[in-house]
Structures are given as structure tokens and as C-alpha cells.
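Figure 3 (text version): C-alpha cells given as input.
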């Protein structure tokens, strides 16, 4: 496709809200996954320290 302006590009031929909504949703899911991974790792490290295990700080 060829767009004459940025507004036409963003409108995506009238389908922009679906296209950009899908991109936004996918971005939100990826960000949520990254946040959950960080929280899960922090919880596991806390549990390991509480159990007396050695946590290797060099692997962060």
C-alpha cells in the first residue's frame, strides 16, 4: 500500500483502530509477561535466601 500522509497511514484504509488496537494489545501482553517474569524471579530468589540457599548475583 502507498499512503500520501501519516494520517492515512495511521487510518490504514479505515481499519486503523483494529490494526493499532492489535499492536497495542500485543505490546501490553509482552510487557505484562516481562513484569511477571521479573516478579517471579524476585520471589524465587527471596524464597531461596529464606531457605538458606546461595543466590548467584552474577547471573542477573
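Below: residues designed for each position.
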Amino acid at each position: 500500500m502507498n499512503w500520501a500522509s501519516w494520517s492515512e497511514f495511521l487510518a490504514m484504509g479505515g481499519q486503523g483502530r483494529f490494526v493499532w488496537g492489535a499492536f497495542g494489545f500485543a505490546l501490553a501482553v509482552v510487557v505484562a509477561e516481562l513484569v511477571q517474569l521479573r516478579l517471579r524471579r524476585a520471589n524465587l530468589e527471596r524464597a531461596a535466601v529464606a531457605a538458606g540457599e546461595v543466590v548467584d548475583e552474577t547471573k542477573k
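The mean pLDDT is 89.
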